[in-house]
Amino acid sequence: MSFALLYFLFLKASLSSFNGLAALPIIRQDLVVTHHVLTDRQLNTALVIGRTTPGPIGLYMVSAGYYAAGARGATAAALALTTPAVLVIPLLVFAARRASHPRVQQVLQAVLLASAGITLAVTLPLGADALHSPLTWALAAGSLAALAFTKVDTIWVMLGASAISLVSAFFSMRRLG
Amino acid sequence: MKTTPRLGELGALFFRAGNFTPGGGTPATAILQRELISTRQWFDTEDFALCYALSRVTPGTNLLAFYTAIGWRLRGWRGAIVTLLAGAAPCCVLVGLITAGFERISRNVWVAAGIEGALAASVGLLLAGFWLLVRPFLTPRGWLRSVVVVAASVLLTRYGGLSPVSVLLLAALTGFIGSAQKEGKRE
Fold first, then answer.
1. A159 CA: distance to closest CA in chain B (Å)
2. How far is B174 from chain A (nearest CA, A)?
3. Do the Cβ atoms of B19 and A55 come within 8 Å?
4. 3-class DSSP state for residue B23?
5. pLDDT in tens, A96-155
6. In A53-133, which ranges are continuous DSSP H helix?
7. Angle at Cα A111 formed by Cα B4 and Cα A115, nearest 5°?
8. Rg of the Cα atoms in chain A
9. Which DSSP string do the residues of B38-66 spell out, in sequence order?
10. What is the CA radius of gyration of chain B?
11. Apex CA A155: angle with CA A152 and CA A158, to 5°?
12. pTM
């Protein structure tokens, strides 16, 4: 499959959705069912990789691209993933001129509060999945305190939590012999 | 007071927020919110809300549109290119490399332990992001409205089956109607 066709197929999937996972059915239809360059198992593995690596969830497309056509496929998918992002600029140009109007301010305030609610709603299932031991609860609570009430850099909090988890795993293994 | 960042500073922040944050777009957004508004003061809350809302209604991956919007607001086209590339390119390369060696990496207990700690910290990060977003609106006159909007958004997203875009559109509509009523009363 050519680079251009792969790019076009990933771009079509990306443009047809408003979040990474919504593009999944289109990618499956094009790459698994129609062109047979990807298997369902590979697509599932790509999803796991996309969910467990840093960055947006839509990164599974890069992994799917790699399974479909190696580094060339991954590059085509990465380009298709990033291309639609520039569409936000004309939207900003239009909206920014009206941003200081009191009515727009009210709308933005409501949107901001709703986005906080969405963040909390997303946190609940993630917390249920990630917090399964006293240590993980303590790491979450410590991170919350450090990030909400101090100016410590976020990256140090993430790295610190990983390091504590590693040390804990080390001692658990030693105990088990 | 807002300050304007250099392109290098902007790239460094998006490189870190975009490529070292597990858990998808929400934790990365929470990091950027904290860094851009509270820590570095490059952005105010209203500008941040504008970029966030518009990136949610842009087709494609919302987080990448969000990076582009922030970069463009701060430093124009060059800023948009820097934030998009710094936030997205390294993790795309990383995913490609991980895919190539996935079977071997996932069996490593040390990698798994490190990921576990980072995932727990990302829950704290999300809650901190939530608190920092809501705190400015918990004023004596506005706290009840804020609590109602947040609670309704949680319920509609978590139990109502609505997509985030639909919830944001509903919130925008509520804000619009509320402001129209206020203007009507004044007249």
1. 7
2. 7
3. yes
4. coil
5. 777 667 777 788 788 878 878 877 887 787 788 788 899 999 999 999 999 888 877 777
6. 60-82, 88-96, 102-130
7. 85
8. 21
9. IIS--S-HHHHHHHHHHHHTSSS-HHHHH
10. 19
11. 100
12. 0.72
